[in-house]
Amino acid sequence: MSAPKNIFKQNLRSEKVQIGCWAGFADPYATEMLATAGFDWILLDGEHAPNDMRSILAQLQVLAGFDVSPVVRLPVGDEVLIKQALDLGAQTLLIPMVETAKDARAHVTSTRYPPVGRRGVGAALARASLYSHIPNYVTTANDEICLLLQIENKAGLAALDEILTIDGVDGIFIGPADLSADMGYPGQTDHPDVRRTIKETILKIKAAGKAAGILSTEDAYSQDCIDMGVEFTAVGVDVITYVRAVRALADKFRQT
Questions:
Q1: What phi-psi label fits residue 88: left (phi over 0), alpha (psi between -120 and 50 degrees) or beta?
Q2: Is residue 48 annotated as a catalytic residue, yes or no?
Q3: Is residue 206 one of the residues assigned to a domain?
Q4: pLDDT tens digits along 105-119
């Protein structure tokens, strides 16, 4: 019995476009509702949402009952946090603010068991191995780990060519909000210079044989990115979708 197959990673390899949504409520009840929508993947956000390991665990547990791939974004690329998230059963990680090839290599190493990596071998009591129910977990887990690195500033762009040569990096996620701010256009993700840089970056990622990803809450631009070759696209954020809907409802009845 081997580690579970990572469907998200398999689909990236086949270049199948996967449509996702950000989960920012940090609550399993809300995430379970989101899981009924039919997205291919759901991002559990540990960077800008109030998640900790226990709330991530609870959301992984509810998502296990749905045909959707969870992706966990950690607050920082820390070896201990990576180890904990993987032991909880996360198989796809998104690491924010990657700026150097050295950091990228360290993240690859942190996600793999020895002798190829440094992941701590504690699977016997981990949810990832179903608490020792998967006897071959340690020897098969490495192949099912999917590592996505977030490039979101000029330093990351400068290091991208080298990062794209690193084995074990499955995909690059472009962060438009941080990137636009670092380029001198805070709050202007649609600035022509930003959009041009994003397009050039997507094409570079694709040419290197890696998967490209992005988040956009603008439908037309999401489709533009898919047309450019982005394989994993988040097309919404649950928190934003919710507040827009309830504010629109309140405004409608205020006007009447």
A1: alpha
A2: yes
A3: yes
A4: 999 999 999 999 999
> Which of 156, 4, 152, 173 lies closest to 93, judged by CA?
173
Structurally, how many domains does the chain consist of?
Answer: 1
In a domain, 2, yes or no: no
100, two tokens:
């150097």
Q: pTM for the complete prediction?
A: 0.96
Query: Which pair of structure tokens corresponds to residue 158?
Result: 């400068």
Structural domain boundaries, residue 56: 7-255
For position 129, which CATH number holds? 3.20.20.60
Catalytic residue among 48, 107, 133, 191: 48
Q: Residue 58: inside a domain, yes or no?
A: yes
Average pLDDT over residues 233-240: 98
Parallel/antiparallel/unpaired status of strands 171-174 and 211-215: parallel
* CA separation for the pair 130, 107 (Å, rounded): 24
Whether the pLDDT of residue 3 is over 80: the answer is yes
Task: Indicate whether 1 belongs to any domain.
Answer: no
Which tens digit of pLDDT belongs to each residue from 139-186?
A: 999 999 999 999 999 999 999 999 999 999 999 999 999 999 999 999
**What tens digit of pLDDT does each residue of 194-204 get?**
999 999 999 99
* Alpha-carbon gap, residue 57 to 69, rounded angstroms: 14
Q: What is the C-alpha separation between 224 and 226, in angstroms, rounded? A: 5
